[in-house]
Design a protein that fits this description.
The protein has helices at 28-35, 43-55, 59-80. It is an all-alpha fold and 89 residues long. The model is unreliable at 1-10 (pLDDT under 50).
Length: 89
């Protein structure tokens, strides 16, 4: 993001994040990363993810199970439909 003078917005300066990424607004992909215990999330993501955890305490388990399913699914599909496996990647 850029300010009115065309200079980079201060929200992402010094974070190593491209200026077009607004780190002050939560993003579902970064919240997913947070639930998985990743490092690629910011304060806004963690704040909203904390509220999600308060209302749905099992979200971390659900996200981990979803990740396990996505890893397992191509293996099962290759056994069922060998020619269609690349479509799932």
């Amino acid at each position: 993001m850029t300010g009115t003078s065309g200079t980079p917005d201060q929200r992402s300066v010094g974070t190593g994040v491209p200026p077009e990424i607004d780190v002050s607004r939560p993003h579902p992909a970064r919240m997913y990363d947070y639930f998985l215990g990743g490092k690629d999330n910011f304060a806004a993501d963690r704040a909203v993810a904390g509220k999600v955890l308060e209302s749905w305490g099992a979200v971390r388990t659900a996200v981990r199970e979803n990740r396990a399913f996505l890893r397992h699914r191509p293996c099962v599909s290759r056994r069922w439909h060998p020619r269609r496996a690349p479509d799932l990647r």
